[in-house]
Write a structure and sequence with these properties.
Strand content: 15-25%
Shape: elongated
Radius of gyration: 38 Å
Number of strands: 32
Length: 774
């Protein structure tokens, strides 16, 4: 019995070794318990965090990926038989648009030219009226402009043909990022091929993260002792660019990898590739960050991405690695070496032949001139565009993504205006310091503002003298005095004698005013036409009082003068404060057969889906009868031929130009307004402090206009017959209407309604007339 007890006791006792084993198993069980619980908790955290990231990614990818800045375009040049576009102007336009001159156009973006014809292969583009397909046409010119536009494929003559507008700028209202979205199908295949070869060869095989690439990069970097290679996939780079900062940390890399896996799971490779190509950072344009291949093509080469050479496409892919390090303007040798590496990879992959590779590596970088901005500085014009957009479309429009704004700006007119202002003010400043300028150019046919300069330094973003000044316009008001007098059923003609004698006027307060002519002389009387072309003050005042100061004010207001007028006799000589924009508005009415149309800067706005936004039409009405306006245009041409603007006429002999000079008291303000068949211009030259300038209208503002026309050769005014106007004959001394065979008569246009020539010339009969009883 005792033996059995002893044996039982022995079997229940644990040895030290067994106790240690049991303790080990217990420890591992505890560790395992903690581990799987932690793993489960970690998995839960990762799951919930992944769901959170998935929501962020979905919101970004399936909503609005980017805020695309509003694109602002110039006018689209319209070509049609009779269009006032000369051969040199067309050549300059094509150069501005980046078309290539060749012997025989073989692809989009090319043209050839002779002295009278231009064969053009136009690019496709989005027009406010709809998509315009690529088209090959022959454009013929004569002395008046365009004579015909013929489609090459079927020899059909086109009624109207548009060139694509110039992308002037993008209005950035968000985070300073700038981009032009380009769908994958419009991206050159060589760019995609090169991108995958250089940045992510297994893009279509991995699932957002490439462990082998990460391991390879780590080995290379450890061996080199520094970071020389990256292992990130395109998807990881996209995740970093879209959602993360550039901070270097393990946590950020883990988050990047996780997001890359989610992106790859959620979206197709083509969607990811499109997002990357439009998101990747490509450089810095001053304060603007250049993102995406589409904008980079414009930024570096000044042309659409579809027209880049294979070497230029390789350049863009090469730049991705480090836009600052490979800045072509600072380090051309660096970017050329890397570009050539990209080209070699394309050749090794069989995407380039040996001959194509050699031709590409031997080509220059061909980047744009850094002195020529990637976008035009148009502070004065853009300020007016923003104001009009707010007034007509609402102040929220510019905050919308992908808006396209089509404007009236003529890039060639703007360039000519800027050169004219810069050169002329530099010359005038030599003898007259502190001069400033404001200039507005309009399109006679559309009523749009074609060019605007608000400072003698055109790109200066500050006080806009083209719009904001208010200065006495002087003699620029006189055509409206004469237009009032020459209205239908009026007693006045271009030949009517006007008194040119001393006159003193007294107002209700007893103050007197005695206007003087510029030369302080009086001639007794002068024909109405002479008074206007010589800009004589006293005859103008007499005429204005005869027709009524209030009637003159009405004519000016109907022509587009928007601000109140003080209806005093001094108004007749230009005691009216205005700006170049206000003057351009009323002179546009004179140039456009007396039709008032409110000047505009915006022709159409399209939303992100290319749909035109509804807008009310601008007012339009007949302010001055066409027959009266014809007489005023005739008189203003005489101002240029033999009047105060003779220097302008001498500079362009044989070209029909109309104009009017203006000078305020003490020569403080120099004005000129004039037009040819294409453009109306209004120019002010003076000082901001209202000091004396010693300049007249002909020596200051007209000098700017003359320089403008030298940069932009004028098109002669067309003398088109107008109903209600006949060729009249008037006695030189009395202004009486006579027959054409009378002596001592001048031939002048006259209104049919008031032209009543006398049957008898009113001259003494000759002896033979007496015999015949005449």
């Amino acid at each position: 019995m005792n033996d059995e007890v002893d044996m039982t006791t022995k079997t229940t006792k644990k040895t030290p070794a067994s106790r240690r084993a049991n303790n080990g198993r217990g420890f591992f069980r505890r560790v395992w318990s903690i581990t799987w619980k932690l793993a489960l908790a970690g998995l839960a955290v990762v799951t919930f965090y992944s769901i959170y990231l998935d929501q962020i990614i979905a919101q970004k990818f399936e909503g609005q990926k980017w805020h695309l800045p509003a694109q602002v375009f110039s006018r689209s040049m319209a070509l049609y038989p009779g269009a006032a576009v000369s051969h040199p102007q067309m050549m300059a336009e094509l150069k501005l648009l980046g078309y290539r001159k060749v012997a025989n156009p073989r692809q989009v973006g090319e043209f050839s030219a002779s002295s009278t014809r231009i064969e053009l292969w136009r690019r496709p583009f989005l027009h406010p009226e709809g998509d315009q397909v690529e088209q090959r046409v022959m454009i013929s010119f004569d002395s008046n402009g365009v004579s015909s536009v013929t489609r090459v494929s079927d020899k059909r003559q086109l009624a109207v043909f548009h060139l694509e507008p110039v992308l002037l700028d993008r209005i950035i209202t968000g985070d300073g990022e700038d981009r032009l979205f380009v769908p994958t199908e419009e991206m050159p295949k060589s760019i995609v091929q090169a991108l995958l070869l250089v940045e992510d060869r297994s893009f279509y095989e991995h699932h957002g993260v490439n462990p082998f690439a990460i391991a390879r990069a780590a080995f290379v970097n450890i061996s080199a002792g520094r970071t020389v290679q990256g292992g990130s996939t395109l998807t990881q780079q996209l995740a970093k660019n879209f959602f993360l900062s550039s901070e270097r940390s393990l946590l950020r890399k883990v988050r990047e990898a996780l997001m890359a896996v989610i992106i790859d799971f959620r979206y197709s490779k083509d969607e990811i590739l499109e997002a990357y190509l439009n998101e990747v950072y490509m450089g810095q344009d001053k304060s603007r960050a250049v993102h995406g291949m589409g904008l980079a093509s414009r930024f570096y080469f000044g042309r659409p991405i579809s027209e880049l050479t294979i070497a230029q496409q390789a350049f863009l892919v090469a730049t991705i690695k480090g836009p600052s390090y490979y800045n072509p303007w600072r380090y051309p040798e660096r970017i050329q070496e890397r570009r050539d590496l990209v080209l070699r990879l394309l050749m090794d992959a069989g995407d380039l032949t040996t001959a194509e590779y050699k031709a590409a590596v031997e080509s220059p970088l061909a980047i744009r001139n850094l002195n020529k901005p990637a976008h035009q500085k148009l502070p004065s014009f853009f300020a007016l565009v923003k104001q009009e957009v707010n007034e007509r479309y609402g102040d929220a429009l510019l905050k919308q993504s992908g808006v396209k704004i089509y404007t009236t700006l003529d890039p060639m007119a703007q360039e000519a205006a800027e050169k004219a202002v810069t050169q002329t003010l530099k010359s005038l400043d030599k003898s007259n310091k502190s001069l400033q300028v404001g200039m507005v150019v309009t399109d006679k046919y559309t009523g749009g503002i074609a060019a605007m300069v608000g400072d003698k330094t055109p790109g200066f973003d500050g006080f806009n003298r083209a719009v904001e000044i208010r200065r006495p316009i002087g003699s620029l008001i006189k055509p409206f005095v004469y237009a009032t007098a020459l209205a239908p059923n009026s007693q006045f003609t271009l030949a009517t004698p006007l008194k040119d004698q001393p006159i003193t006027l007294k107002n209700e307060q007893g103050k007197t005013w005695s206007p003087q002519n510029f030369d302080k002389k009086f001639s007794g009387q002068v024909p109405l036409l002479t008074a206007l072309k010589k800009s004589m003050n006293v005859p103008t005042v007499n005429l204005g009082i005869a027709v009524g100061v209030d009637a003159v004010a009405t004519t000016l207001a109907k022509s587009g003068w928007q601000e109140p007028l003080n209806e005093y006799p001094s108004m007749l000589l230009g005691a009216v404060n205005g700006s170049p924009l206000m003057v351009a508005q009323v002179y546009q009415t004179l140039a456009d057969s007396g039709v008032y149309r409110k000047l505009t800067t915006v022709t159409a706005v399209l939303d992100a889906d290319k749909n035109p936004l509804p807008v009310t039409r601008l007012p339009k009405e007949q302010a001055i009868s066409p027959d009266t306006d014809f007489l005023i245009q005739y008189a203003m041409q005489q101002v240029v031929n033999t009047g105060t603007a003779t220097r302008l006429g001498n500079a362009f002999p044989g070209v029909g130009l109309a104009g009017k000079t203006g000078t305020s008291n003490d020569s403080r303000d120099s004005w000129f307004a004039g037009f040819d068949e294409r453009n109306v211009a209004a120019i002010w030259v003076g000082r901001d402090d209202n000091g004396k300038t010693s300049l007249y209208g002909s020596s200051g503002a007209m000098a700017v206009y003359l320089a403008f026309l030298k940069e932009r050769p004028p098109i002669s005014l067309r003398s088109i017959p107008v109903n209600g106007v006949v060729k009249g004959f008037f006695d030189r001394d009395t202004g009486v209407a006579k027959e054409s065979d009378c002596s001592n008569v001048d031939a002048l246009p006259a209104l049919t309604a008031t032209y009543r020539p006398v049957n008898n010339c009113g001259e003494p009969l000759q002896w033979w007339q007496k015999i015949l009883g005449q």
